[in-house]
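Troubleshooting log. The previous structure file for this entry was overwritten by mistake, so regenerating from the original sequence record. Sequence copied from the archived sheet and checked twice against the printout by T.R.
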Amino acid sequence: MITLPDVRGTLTPQRPLSDLTWLRVGGPADWLFQPADVQDLSDFLRDLPAGIDVFPMGVGSNLIVRDGGLRAVVIRLGRGFNGISIDGTRVTAGAAALDAHVARKAAEAGVDLTFLRTIPGAIGGAVCMNAGCYGSYVADHLVEIRAVLRTGEVVTLPAADLHLAYRSSVLPEGAVVIEAVFQGAPGDPQALTARMEEQLAKRDATQPTKDRTAGSTFRNPAGFSSTGQADDVHDLKAWKVIDDAGMRGATRGGAQMSPKHSNFLVNTGGATAADLEGLGEEVRKKVFLHSGIELEWEIKRVGEPLANQA
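Regenerated output below.
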């Protein structure tokens, strides 16, 4: 029997993950670890047997956990990792701080990080995915991060070391992001707040924000620079190629491609992870057959299917 290190936080075996993801699907993790603080996380990773995988998990906004669950220690950061501090136009945010909350706090202090306001999830995930909205990306503002390595060492990494690209980054294997520092432009708090309200209204008018989704399902097909900026000549949209393939509103079990925005995968009620991933793969196949474009998943899929799904 494998013995895990002693912790001061909470370590739960066979913890179901479905209630921790926005799509509300997925089997159990072998363990779920919620560290008390940075030292607790560092000690745990240092003493964890090398053969056990680690999976850092944010608020589950961009994630499908397969129905058979995850053979790993899932690390989920909580209250000790959600602080926000502002010094001039620099904003330091814990990895568990919600993107929207960071945007609001920054705006109140006259710092423009308004692009974060409509991005679902928390800062750790935003860094890992180089999240962006309305033409602005994490790569445009990130100064550095702090992370705990699999060895337990706490390190500071400049943004350049993450090789941020369109919806991607490069982090050391098993590293857990615990904090990020952003540089924003100065702005009038009222004007910044008004801009965020406009962004919210636009999002609610065009996206299924009241449905159970995980944000955009597929990356836009091509034409983006290393920082995520669109190339206008090749700026293809995933929703358009999905529409062209006739897959808007398509269903499988309890899963549906949203009729409101066809790049949103929806759990209409009772969907399994297999329903959702299977519908996504069907969309990818139909798009490829129609246009020759191979869509790439933006939603992260992890874990194992159930035995009867394999």
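DSSP finds six helices and 19 strands in the chain. Archived copy saved in two places this time.
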